[in-house]
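Pasting as-is:
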Amino acid sequence: MSIIEAIILGIIQGLTEFLPVSSSGHLELAKSLFGKTATGSESLAFTVVVHVATALSTCMVFRKDIAALLGGLLQLTWNAETIFSLKIVLSMIPAAFVGLFFESFIEELFSGQILLVGAMLGVTGLLLFVADRAKNNGKDVGFTDAIIIGISQAIAILPGVSRSGATISTTVLLGIDREKATRFSFLMVVPLIFGKIAKDTIDGGFSMELNNASSLIAGFIAAFISGWFACRWMIALVKRAKLTYFSLYCFGIGLTVILYSVFTA
Protein backbone atom coordinates (compact mmCIF):
# COMPACT_ATOMS: atom_id res chain seq x y z
CA MET A 1 0.00 0.00 0.00
CA SER A 2 1.41 3.37 -1.01
CA ILE A 3 1.45 6.36 1.32
CA ILE A 4 -1.06 8.20 -0.88
CA GLU A 5 -3.46 5.26 -0.74
CA ALA A 6 -3.00 5.03 3.03
CA ILE A 7 -3.81 8.73 3.42
CA ILE A 8 -6.96 8.38 1.28
CA LEU A 9 -8.08 5.35 3.31
CA GLY A 10 -7.30 7.21 6.54
CA ILE A 11 -9.44 10.16 5.46
CA ILE A 12 -12.26 7.79 4.50
CA GLN A 13 -12.06 6.22 7.96
CA GLY A 14 -12.01 9.58 9.72
CA LEU A 15 -14.98 10.92 7.78
CA THR A 16 -17.15 7.78 7.94
CA GLU A 17 -16.46 6.69 11.53
CA PHE A 18 -18.92 9.25 12.88
CA LEU A 19 -21.66 8.77 10.31
CA PRO A 20 -23.91 5.68 10.44
CA VAL A 21 -22.65 4.38 7.08
CA SER A 22 -19.99 1.82 8.16
CA SER A 23 -16.38 3.01 8.15
CA SER A 24 -15.09 -0.59 7.94
CA GLY A 25 -17.34 -1.26 4.96
CA HIS A 26 -16.10 1.83 3.15
CA LEU A 27 -12.50 0.88 3.92
CA GLU A 28 -12.97 -2.57 2.42
CA LEU A 29 -14.64 -1.11 -0.67
CA ALA A 30 -11.83 1.42 -1.10
CA LYS A 31 -9.20 -1.31 -0.72
CA SER A 32 -11.01 -3.34 -3.36
CA LEU A 33 -11.07 -0.38 -5.76
CA PHE A 34 -7.35 0.10 -5.18
CA GLY A 35 -6.86 -3.56 -6.10
CA LYS A 36 -5.40 -4.48 -2.74
CA THR A 37 -4.36 -8.11 -2.36
CA ALA A 38 -3.45 -7.95 1.32
CA THR A 39 -4.16 -10.94 3.52
CA GLY A 40 -6.91 -10.82 6.10
CA SER A 41 -4.48 -10.10 8.94
CA GLU A 42 -2.69 -7.34 6.98
CA SER A 43 -5.99 -5.72 6.02
CA LEU A 44 -7.22 -5.99 9.60
CA ALA A 45 -3.97 -4.41 10.87
CA PHE A 46 -4.55 -1.25 8.83
CA THR A 47 -8.21 -1.19 9.86
CA VAL A 48 -7.23 -1.40 13.54
CA VAL A 49 -4.62 1.36 13.19
CA VAL A 50 -7.03 3.87 11.67
CA HIS A 51 -9.71 2.92 14.20
CA VAL A 52 -7.23 3.73 16.99
CA ALA A 53 -6.68 7.11 15.34
CA THR A 54 -10.39 7.90 15.35
CA ALA A 55 -10.68 6.58 18.91
CA LEU A 56 -8.04 9.11 19.93
CA SER A 57 -9.88 11.85 18.07
CA THR A 58 -13.01 10.84 19.98
CA CYS A 59 -11.05 11.24 23.22
CA MET A 60 -10.06 14.73 22.12
CA VAL A 61 -13.64 15.76 21.38
CA PHE A 62 -15.06 14.16 24.56
CA ARG A 63 -12.07 15.01 26.75
CA LYS A 64 -14.24 16.89 29.27
CA ASP A 65 -16.67 13.97 29.54
CA ILE A 66 -13.81 11.50 29.95
CA ALA A 67 -12.11 13.70 32.56
CA ALA A 68 -15.39 13.93 34.49
CA LEU A 69 -15.83 10.15 34.36
CA LEU A 70 -12.28 9.54 35.58
CA GLY A 71 -12.72 12.13 38.33
CA GLY A 72 -15.92 10.46 39.47
CA LEU A 73 -14.32 7.01 39.47
CA LEU A 74 -11.41 8.25 41.60
CA GLN A 75 -13.88 9.29 44.30
CA LEU A 76 -14.56 5.56 44.85
CA THR A 77 -18.25 6.18 45.52
CA TRP A 78 -21.46 5.01 43.85
CA ASN A 79 -21.99 8.24 41.89
CA ALA A 80 -23.34 9.08 38.42
CA GLU A 81 -19.91 8.70 36.81
CA THR A 82 -19.41 5.24 38.34
CA ILE A 83 -22.84 4.13 37.15
CA PHE A 84 -22.20 5.42 33.61
CA SER A 85 -18.78 3.75 33.52
CA LEU A 86 -20.32 0.44 34.61
CA LYS A 87 -22.80 0.70 31.74
CA ILE A 88 -19.87 1.25 29.36
CA VAL A 89 -18.20 -1.89 30.73
CA LEU A 90 -21.40 -3.91 30.30
CA SER A 91 -21.72 -2.71 26.70
CA MET A 92 -18.19 -3.93 25.94
CA ILE A 93 -18.77 -7.55 27.00
CA PRO A 94 -20.50 -8.88 23.82
CA ALA A 95 -17.94 -7.39 21.42
CA ALA A 96 -15.06 -8.52 23.65
CA PHE A 97 -16.46 -12.06 23.64
CA VAL A 98 -16.72 -12.11 19.85
CA GLY A 99 -13.24 -10.65 19.47
CA LEU A 100 -11.67 -13.19 21.82
CA PHE A 101 -13.29 -16.36 20.49
CA PHE A 102 -13.91 -15.58 16.81
CA GLU A 103 -10.78 -13.61 15.92
CA SER A 104 -9.63 -15.84 13.04
CA PHE A 105 -13.12 -15.84 11.53
CA ILE A 106 -13.24 -12.04 11.74
CA GLU A 107 -9.89 -11.77 9.92
CA GLU A 108 -11.35 -13.71 7.01
CA LEU A 109 -14.19 -11.21 6.74
CA PHE A 110 -11.65 -8.43 6.19
CA SER A 111 -10.25 -9.99 3.00
CA GLY A 112 -12.01 -8.08 0.26
CA GLN A 113 -15.42 -9.70 0.82
CA ILE A 114 -17.24 -6.90 -0.97
CA LEU A 115 -20.41 -8.93 -1.55
CA LEU A 116 -20.73 -9.31 2.22
CA VAL A 117 -20.07 -5.59 2.62
CA GLY A 118 -22.87 -4.76 0.18
CA ALA A 119 -25.34 -7.05 1.94
CA MET A 120 -24.45 -5.67 5.38
CA LEU A 121 -24.79 -2.08 4.15
CA GLY A 122 -28.34 -3.05 3.22
CA VAL A 123 -28.87 -4.35 6.77
CA THR A 124 -27.52 -1.06 8.14
CA GLY A 125 -29.88 0.86 5.89
CA LEU A 126 -32.86 -1.16 7.08
CA LEU A 127 -31.93 -0.66 10.73
CA LEU A 128 -31.61 3.10 10.26
CA PHE A 129 -34.91 3.26 8.37
CA VAL A 130 -36.77 1.47 11.18
CA ALA A 131 -35.05 3.46 13.94
CA ASP A 132 -36.00 6.77 12.34
CA ARG A 133 -39.64 5.90 12.97
CA ALA A 134 -39.18 4.92 16.62
CA LYS A 135 -40.70 6.96 19.42
CA ASN A 136 -38.28 9.08 21.44
CA ASN A 137 -39.06 8.72 25.16
CA GLY A 138 -36.00 10.72 26.23
CA LYS A 139 -34.92 8.19 28.83
CA ASP A 140 -31.37 7.48 30.02
CA VAL A 141 -29.37 4.39 29.09
CA GLY A 142 -30.16 1.64 31.60
CA PHE A 143 -28.09 -1.40 32.52
CA THR A 144 -30.21 -3.73 30.37
CA ASP A 145 -30.08 -1.17 27.57
CA ALA A 146 -26.28 -1.15 27.78
CA ILE A 147 -26.12 -4.92 27.24
CA ILE A 148 -28.51 -4.75 24.28
CA ILE A 149 -26.51 -1.90 22.73
CA GLY A 150 -23.37 -3.94 23.33
CA ILE A 151 -24.83 -6.84 21.35
CA SER A 152 -25.47 -4.41 18.48
CA GLN A 153 -21.85 -3.29 18.68
CA ALA A 154 -20.70 -6.92 18.53
CA ILE A 155 -22.78 -7.53 15.39
CA ALA A 156 -21.28 -4.38 13.89
CA ILE A 157 -17.87 -6.09 13.78
CA LEU A 158 -19.09 -7.40 10.42
CA PRO A 159 -17.71 -5.17 7.62
CA GLY A 160 -20.58 -3.17 6.20
CA VAL A 161 -22.57 -2.96 9.43
CA SER A 162 -22.13 0.52 10.80
CA ARG A 163 -21.07 0.46 14.45
CA SER A 164 -22.43 3.92 15.15
CA GLY A 165 -25.49 3.19 13.03
CA ALA A 166 -26.20 -0.06 14.87
CA THR A 167 -25.64 1.34 18.35
CA ILE A 168 -27.39 4.68 17.80
CA SER A 169 -30.34 2.97 16.09
CA THR A 170 -30.61 0.46 18.92
CA THR A 171 -30.64 3.19 21.57
CA VAL A 172 -33.26 5.14 19.61
CA LEU A 173 -35.40 2.00 19.28
CA LEU A 174 -35.10 1.60 23.06
CA GLY A 175 -36.63 5.07 23.48
CA ILE A 176 -33.40 6.90 24.37
CA ASP A 177 -33.02 10.38 22.86
CA ARG A 178 -30.47 10.88 20.08
CA GLU A 179 -28.14 13.18 22.01
CA LYS A 180 -27.69 10.63 24.79
CA ALA A 181 -27.55 7.84 22.21
CA THR A 182 -24.77 9.56 20.27
CA ARG A 183 -22.71 10.30 23.39
CA PHE A 184 -22.98 6.74 24.68
CA SER A 185 -22.30 5.26 21.22
CA PHE A 186 -19.05 7.15 20.72
CA LEU A 187 -17.74 6.74 24.27
CA MET A 188 -18.45 3.00 24.52
CA VAL A 189 -16.09 2.07 21.68
CA VAL A 190 -12.99 3.87 23.00
CA PRO A 191 -11.94 1.40 25.74
CA LEU A 192 -12.82 -1.53 23.47
CA ILE A 193 -10.44 -0.40 20.72
CA PHE A 194 -7.59 0.27 23.14
CA GLY A 195 -8.22 -3.10 24.78
CA LYS A 196 -7.99 -4.80 21.39
CA ILE A 197 -4.65 -3.13 20.65
CA ALA A 198 -3.30 -4.09 24.08
CA LYS A 199 -4.29 -7.73 23.54
CA ASP A 200 -2.73 -7.89 20.07
CA THR A 201 0.46 -6.26 21.33
CA ILE A 202 0.79 -8.75 24.20
CA ASP A 203 0.01 -11.70 21.93
CA GLY A 204 2.38 -10.46 19.25
CA GLY A 205 -0.45 -10.44 16.72
CA PHE A 206 -0.15 -6.75 15.92
CA SER A 207 3.06 -5.22 14.64
CA MET A 208 4.20 -2.67 12.12
CA GLU A 209 6.64 -4.24 9.68
CA LEU A 210 9.31 -1.98 8.24
CA ASN A 211 7.99 -2.25 4.70
CA ASN A 212 4.51 -0.96 5.58
CA ALA A 213 5.17 1.14 8.70
CA SER A 214 5.17 4.42 6.74
CA SER A 215 1.79 3.62 5.20
CA LEU A 216 0.30 2.71 8.58
CA ILE A 217 1.64 5.93 10.11
CA ALA A 218 0.33 8.02 7.21
CA GLY A 219 -3.09 6.37 7.50
CA PHE A 220 -3.09 6.95 11.25
CA ILE A 221 -2.33 10.67 10.93
CA ALA A 222 -4.90 11.17 8.16
CA ALA A 223 -7.59 9.33 10.13
CA PHE A 224 -6.84 11.25 13.33
CA ILE A 225 -6.96 14.71 11.74
CA SER A 226 -10.02 14.07 9.58
CA GLY A 227 -11.71 12.21 12.45
CA TRP A 228 -11.15 15.09 14.88
CA PHE A 229 -12.83 17.59 12.57
CA ALA A 230 -15.52 15.15 11.43
CA CYS A 231 -16.43 14.09 14.97
CA ARG A 232 -17.26 17.65 16.04
CA TRP A 233 -19.34 18.23 12.93
CA MET A 234 -20.95 14.83 12.48
CA ILE A 235 -22.17 14.41 16.07
CA ALA A 236 -24.38 17.47 15.66
CA LEU A 237 -25.45 16.24 12.22
CA VAL A 238 -26.48 12.81 13.51
CA LYS A 239 -28.55 14.41 16.28
CA ARG A 240 -30.37 16.78 13.93
CA ALA A 241 -30.65 14.92 10.65
CA LYS A 242 -33.12 12.25 9.65
CA LEU A 243 -31.60 8.78 9.86
CA THR A 244 -33.58 7.97 6.71
CA TYR A 245 -31.11 10.00 4.66
CA PHE A 246 -28.28 7.75 5.81
CA SER A 247 -30.53 4.74 5.29
CA LEU A 248 -31.08 5.61 1.63
CA TYR A 249 -27.35 6.16 1.18
CA CYS A 250 -26.58 2.72 2.62
CA PHE A 251 -29.25 1.10 0.42
CA GLY A 252 -27.84 2.78 -2.68
CA ILE A 253 -24.20 1.92 -2.00
CA GLY A 254 -25.07 -1.59 -0.86
CA LEU A 255 -27.10 -2.35 -4.00
CA THR A 256 -24.36 -0.94 -6.22
CA VAL A 257 -21.75 -3.09 -4.51
CA ILE A 258 -23.88 -6.24 -4.77
CA LEU A 259 -24.53 -5.69 -8.47
CA TYR A 260 -20.86 -4.98 -9.11
CA SER A 261 -19.81 -8.08 -7.20
CA VAL A 262 -22.30 -10.31 -9.03
CA PHE A 263 -21.54 -9.08 -12.56
CA THR A 264 -17.74 -9.09 -12.12
CA ALA A 265 -17.56 -12.50 -10.42
